[in-house]
């Protein structure tokens, strides 16, 4: 599907720019079909602060890039569920880059109501997507046109405040 989308975008771009001087065309020499998707995993979950009214949780997500080119990260969309049926959605701007053949850790936060209870030991789950840009101008044009950029998913469940969380 990604290949068909790229081919369609390439053809559309070439048709739209057919009358332009070749020096003004964006670079489309990147072979995105040879790119591997990065991986993401939640490394840590911390209760950073907790009061009678609420708690701040922080999640460390480690992203690995197997490709020969760096991948700029854009945004992460994620959902946190806490034992007792509470589910919360968040969007966080990332503004980081996964280096070529390297890793990058990001921290995202979730503020959740506690309703007077201690969340230590409460079951949780977190899952979401980290969106990134492919190299070159064509993917940038696609994103600017409203086509969502590619994403890598992450998920983890456990008990808050316990070793290994």
Account of the 3D structure:
The protein is mainly β and 165 residues long. The strands form two sheets. The protein has a four-stranded antiparallel β-sheet, with no helix packed on it. It has a three-stranded antiparallel β-sheet with strand order 1-2-5, with no helix packed on it. A hairpin with a 3-residue loop joins β3 and β4. The two termini are 36 Å apart.
The level-1 CATH class: Mainly Beta
The share of residues in extended strands comes to: over 45%
Helix content: 10-25%
Tell me the number of strands: 7
Total number of helices: 2
Question: How would you summarize the topology of this molecule?
Answer:
Layout: H1 2-16, E1 39-50, E2 54-64, E3 71-82, E4 86-98, E5 103-113, E6 123-132, H2 137-144, E7 151-159
Antiparallel strand pairs: 1-2, 2-5, 3-4, 3-6, 6-7
């Amino acid at each position: 599907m990604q290949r068909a989308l790229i081919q369609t975008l390439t053809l559309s771009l070439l048709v739209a720019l057919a009358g332009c001087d070749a020096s003004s065309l964006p670079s489309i020499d990147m072979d995105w079909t040879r790119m591997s998707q990065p991986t993401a995993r939640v490394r840590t979950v911390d209760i950073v602060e907790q009061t009678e009214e609420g708690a701040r949780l922080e999640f460390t997500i480690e992203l690995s890039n197997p490709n020969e080119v760096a991948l700029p990260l854009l945004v992460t969309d994620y959902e946190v569920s806490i034992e007792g049926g509470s589910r919360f959605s968040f969007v966080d701007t990332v503004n980081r880059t996964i280096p070529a053949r390297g890793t990058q850790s990001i921290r995202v936060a979730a503020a959740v109501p506690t309703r007077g209870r201690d969340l230590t030991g409460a079951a949780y789950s977190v899952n979401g997507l980290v969106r990134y840009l492919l190299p070159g101008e064509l993917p940038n044009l696609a994103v600017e046109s409203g086509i969502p950029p590619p994403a890598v998913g992450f998920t983890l469940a456990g008990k808050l405040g316990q070793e290994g969380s």
